Amino acid sequence: MVEQSTLNELVRIAGRENVLTSKVSLNTYMYDASLVYGQPEVVVYVQNAQQIAAILKLASSKKIPVTPRGGGTCLSGGAVPQRGGIVMVMTRMNRILEIDPENRVAVVEPGVTNMELQKAVAPYGLVYMPDPASQKVSTMGGNLGENSGGMRGIKYGLTRDHIIGMELVLSSGEIVQIGGKLEPIAQELNLNALLIGSEGNLGIVTKIICKLTPAPRANRTMLAIYKTLEDAGTSVSAIIARGIIPCTLELMDNKIINAVEDWLHIGLPVDAGAILLIEVDGWDAGLDRQAQQIMQICRENGATDVKLAQNARERDNLWTARRMAIGAIGRLAPNYDMEDATVPRTKLPEILKEVNRLSQEYNVPIGMLAHAGDGNLHPLVLFDERNKEEMERVEKVRAALFRKALDLGGTLSGEHGIGLAKLEFMRWAFNPEELQFLRRERLAFDPSEILNAGKTVPDTDTAA
Amino acid sequence: MRQENIHKLEKILGSGNCQVDPDIRRQHSCSKTALPDAVVYPESSQQVAEVLQVAGKEGIPVVPWGAGTMARRGLLPLAGGLVINLTRMNKIIEYDYENMTAYVEAGIPLGELQKTLRTHNLYWPVEPVEPDTCTVGGCIAAGASGPSKLGYGDVKFHILGLEVVLPTGEIIRTGGKTVKNVQDYDNTRFLAGSWGALGIITKAMLKLRPVPEKETTVFLPFKQLADAIAAARLIRNDTLPVALELLDGAAIAVLARAGWKPDGKGPGVLVAYNGFREQVDTQVDYVKKQFPAAAILEGEAAAAAWQARRQLFPVFAGESGAILASVAVPFTALEAFLTRACDELDRSRKGAALVAHFGNGHVHIFLDEAPSAYAGVEETVNRLATLAGDLGGLLVVDNIDDLTLTRRWVEARGRAVMELLSRLKAAFDPQRIMAPNSKVLAYVIDNSRAAS
Amino acid sequence: MVKTFRQYEEDIVRCNRCGFCEEVCPTYKVTGEEFSLARGRNRLMRQSMEGHFDLTKEREINHHIYSCLLCGACVVTCPSSVITDTLVKAARAEITRANGNPFPIRMALHGVLARQRRLTLGAKALRFYQRSGARWLARHTGFLGLLGSLGKAEGLLPDIPARTLRERLPEVLKKPLKPRHKVAYFAGCMMNNFFPQVAESTLRVFQENDIEVVVPVSNCCGIPHEAYGETEMHVKLAKENLDSFKRFNVEAVVTDCASCAHGLHYYAELLKDDPQYGPLAQQFAAKVKEASQYLAEVGFKKEMGPVNATVTYHDPCHAVRGLKVKDEPRQILKSIPGVKFVEMNESDWCCGGAGSYNVTHYDLSQRILARKMENFKKTGAQYLATSCPACLMQLAHGLDVHQLPGRAIHVMQLLDQAYQNRAVKSGARAV
Fold it and tell me: How would you classify this enzyme at the top EC level (chain C) (predicted)?
């Protein structure tokens, strides 16, 4: 698909040293953090919007698929070039262009990592609220493409609530400005909303305008221990029903507790069915009362113990289990996969039960982590990816999990995206007319169908 | 509209639900002279779909309608076509208070909805000008917001999913029931503020909030505008108000006519705090310490103040009408804009009034001239527009038919944007029947049917 | 490292490609390239193991395997604790076994570093080059430009002193009147030849603290050899050093080079399956201490004169991750009166020196060094202290190239100065 003349043109646009075609370099651009692979035909490192525009114009004229890539930490295959073509590496567009503290706005290039932005605005007493677990390494462009969530999502919202504009290159090679620093006042269609979470299908972002929030002044952290997952789930609902919206409400199951305890020996109760990490933040006044209310609710709902951190060090300790959860579970098997099926909060106990059942039925170990406040489940499925037979069982578990999530009124993905990893299940979530409509929308942006081709919305002609 | 089409509609809806009476048609229009040919009242999404299919085949323009409280803001006059009134579709399909969601039909009036929601201590934090009669669908299509958008954001922050009937007749669902959901492109929020130009919202999954433990309003009177501005700035930087409004002296005078008389004649600042009582009290105490003249309002007094604030423009406009211009500037430019705008208005339009959603960088300017006599204020408006532009913002006039300022703003985004919007419109509405008079796309598509 | 490359299959498959190493891998941070990232190197090694590439023949893979700093930051951050630095070393050993190293490298490793007399001869020749005018010529005629990375790295060389540490020992070594402890000092290649004045400070400090020091004959600790996959020579050197040190009855084996300390400590792992040297290596390794680590353990005199300066500290990779020595050097610095200690951002990031990396990969090492210099600048400190001569050389070069006001110095030098200042009545004498 990519001929020599195209390669020559790419070299002319990006510079010889920024265009890679060797077997070895292409091999390292075949994956992201998901389980899917795809081989690119050429890898190009880009520096600015003009280069991207020229490359897209070229690629769309020749119908060459283009896959933009930031840190390649996507969990659904968003950075995998499944249909070959060009992988466009954005990591060198990594400048923070502007921080405007009183206007509470920052402008960044897409290759800036989420954490770099956090660190840059912290001295002003400001926070960029979305905090995906990958924030130290995932890039803002990727966060935008996937509408990344994070633990603070339940209280402070998701990426879509904190990005107010962008500069975008369309597949035709044209550069447009979407949204802006000002709160909208004119009668305009909200293209900004449509683009966030569009998984690189509608355009490639070259500048991102972010909204900043004053940092919460204080917090209180608690760890509650339960005999059963159900009790933990009921507590979650009860806390929120009281009108308290914590900024952190994380659930961990017995497998995770044991994995962490085996590794770090921090005194976690290995018989506990679940633990809840809860944090409330805001003005210091009133936080104690909120914390007391939460602890009481936990106890009323079956918590066998509730700890409240008295200082920063204790807070750090309470966070250990959550922070090390993935590392701990990752030690139990060669490989793990983290899904993100999401259900309405009240259905969390039910789906947790189902996950346990599937784990036993298919003999696939699964540790459970959840952003309990918004029903965002993260089953950590353990396996050895070299074992084909085991992988088949893993696939069955995944399919059953998505089926159940949808049946409970939930969704295939709360924050990781559809990409390639959940493409086949889109037909369970949407009827043919709805899928066709999404395809039409996408075509309106990208008539040449090159941007992250083959992802997010299944093609018409593949079997249902 | 041809009689045979009326028959087709009556067949779908029942004869009582297809109206051609001139009074009814006038109630469903943005002008006294350009009226729709008929108004229909579907009772299900299926009926809406069938109506649109007919309209598509026959090339009949269609405008969705709720209570019509904001129609003038987003629609141009349109002669002919069909208005689809959704108020018969007004049920709460599911109130899942444990999940803090409500799945409702678009035609339900907000007042009725909020009453039901409150039975479980929840509410939907969307604040249109008419919070009782405006429908949910109207709020969403219009991107409704009020002073509380400072604390909560506008309507798009409070919807999780929609059911939409596309102009091509399909009934599709967007989003879902969960807060975190990235299954589809975010059509849910894309359609918020689309003013019916892309499809008809028939149902919505609403994200609810717990009723705050405490709500307190503070009013600060000032003699000088500069002092009011400084106070508002301090309040926004040091506290977390849910609403923060700055009114000039003229606007304060209108407040009294609107039903709430504050102390003092000069400019004033109206702030709202809500949440847990300690956090409200801490902030209110802080404000009171900085500004001892502040008056604290709670309960009915606060409600009256905010009601008057919401009614400010209708009361200002009165019978003769008035022109509403809206400005967005960076927060840090507010002082410069407000000061110079007031100077300009003092010079050229003594009857004008000005109110700012201070925390959002938005300013509304009320000009004492009927929209039909826009030429009389055009020069002033242009000067204000230039002022806004020089400060990095923009000005649009909300209630005239001329969309030049908006079009220029959108064109500045890049030539490809207009073409993209055109293509998107075609993807949704290949037959171009959906609300051709919708301002949000009127400057993009060639609309030969719009009345002059 | 006792396993061969293929024996690491179970370790290498543990990488789940999460990408968390991107946060800390210096070569990734400065290039943004996947194959310059721990995850990417893992990928290539795994693909080789699974037969898609021939590790020993693919030049590009060789290039990426050797662009790794071996700083170990990825291992600490990895949620699955994938031992990438060990895997890279195993891959290098595999490559070296098949192809041998290029002649200049072999010459340096076998012909010079493994032969202390030749090394010293070489150092003296370099000193001559520096002082005779040859350096001036080389720099100004563009000759260095012909030598590629080596030519650029020429600027790294400190001014080589006239006498090595060993040559100074007769004046320096003084048995304390009432020794509390007895240790063997390991004189590393760099300390002995390039920074003997630093080693002198260390010995004076120890003797000041009533610690008797003996300095056995020793050969290179073997870390450079390990880095180039020269397993046989590595083992040979280890055994040679063990044989030499076993003749002394000491409580500890101390060195002021963090790299040597880590390398010596590693002998236990390296020789654990050796029937003859295994037990000896275990015993030996248990005694190995980095200088500040040892002083913190046994206690050191706090009666010092002031050193009035702002000081910050760079953690050598071999200290902070190799030996888990992090607090002890700081403890020493903070105990010096007059010192205002400030913590440097990313103090444990590799300086880019990485042994011979700054010679073989000069440009890349300088880009990594630039970040370190940025961080140093923000501290406003006058002294950039560290505990490894390789870092010392790299950091001094960085301060020079970036024209920063500040001096790279070893922790032992500052402590030595503090003790010396106690005797001086007024002010602090310049070190």
Answer: oxidoreductase
